[in-house]
Amino acid sequence: GTLPAGLSLSSGGVISGTPTTAGTSTFTVQVTDSQAPADTATKALSIAIPVDLSVTTASLPAGQIGIAYSQSLAAAGGTTPYSWSLASGTLPAGLSLSSGGVISGTPTTAGTSNFTVQVTDSQTPADTATKALSIAIPPDLSVTTSSLPSGVVGTAYSQNLAATGGVTPYSWSLDAGSLPAGLSLSSGGVISGAPTAAGTSNFTVKVTDAQAPADTATKALSIT
């Protein structure tokens, strides 16, 4: 058989060197004594060289203020079990990293946090690997349209609703009340049509973002 690449066996019985390739090498050693004639003995042995440890998590999903967050970090190579820690930077407020590699908690503040995680395996000496990651916590979703202009009976009307925060794309709907006769609200947030009757209509619009779970916001508006 053969020793792992980079290792050698001395006549004094020392296997030494620096492994260069991962894998398990199976071999048989022989010892010879000083008698004449010499006596010999053999033994089948093996040495495992694990693949270098690495963090395989490439990115982390965004969180949401007030919504529980939980994501498991992943690694490959080395020798399990692994132990995780924060090497630099900070997690979003409200989140923490367990030694088992789970980032969890409930985000409390909007913003993007950049940090580096470190995983340590169970070899002696231990192998370590790091990975720079980030988590974005979008601001709470809100409707920024504060009022809508009046329309004119029989005249084309078109107004875009606006929102901020959350994660685009947004989807709009009517949450309560009704629009003036002749007008409708598209899922893209456009109130359009041609009013057919005079009066003031009071209604509430709702915007839903693309997060999972989705964030929503409502706003009471009116059109005369």
What does this structure look like?
The chain is mostly beta strands. The protein has strands at residues 7-9, 15-17, 23-32, 40-49, 54-55, 69-72, 75-76, 83-89, 95-97, 102-105, 111-120, 128-137, 142-143, 157-160, 163-164, 171-177, 183-185, 190-193, 201-208, 216-223. A hairpin with a 4-residue loop joins strand 17 and strand 18 (190-193).
Shape: rod-shaped
Distance between the termini: 90 Å
Taking the sheet with the most strands, its summary is: 3 strands, antiparallel
Radius of gyration: 33 Å
- With strands numbered from the N-terminus, the spatial order across the biggest sheet is 6-10-9
DSSP strand count: 20
Which structural class best describes the helix and strand composition?
Answer: mainly beta
What is the average of the pLDDT values?
A: 96
